[in-house]
Sequence to fold (124 residues):
Amino acid sequence: MKARWLCRRQDLGDGESKGFSLTDDVSTQEVFVVRRGDELYAFVNRCPHTGVELNWQPDRFLDIGQRYIQCSVHGALFRLEDGMCLRGPCVGQRLRRLRLLLHGEDVYLAGEAAQAPDEHGGQQ
Fold:
């Protein structure tokens, strides 16, 4: 998969999240992006515990305090910076983090090898 345009940076306010369905000739991948301040984080929309989608309503991926990603099924909480599960049935597991590319105000999901390294935080 080549780099895919997702949105414009201003489409996401601070503390907001947005889901995307990316379809190609072979499959559909559900992903989401979260903005905190100037940082953008992207993940595959799949809980490592059961494989279900994380959002409890369209574009709602964060807990009530907008501090953590929260699974809609079991309430597991994941750190934004690296997707590490801090509370719930999948403690110690991670969401699959994806690499973003910024071109001006445009936000793109990087190509096929888009998994971000664990040690990097924020946008790529």
Observations:
- The chain is about 0% helix and 35% strand.
- The domain at 4-109 is CATH 2.102.10.10 (Rieske Iron-sulfur Protein).
- Residues 14 and 48 are 26 Å apart (CA to CA).
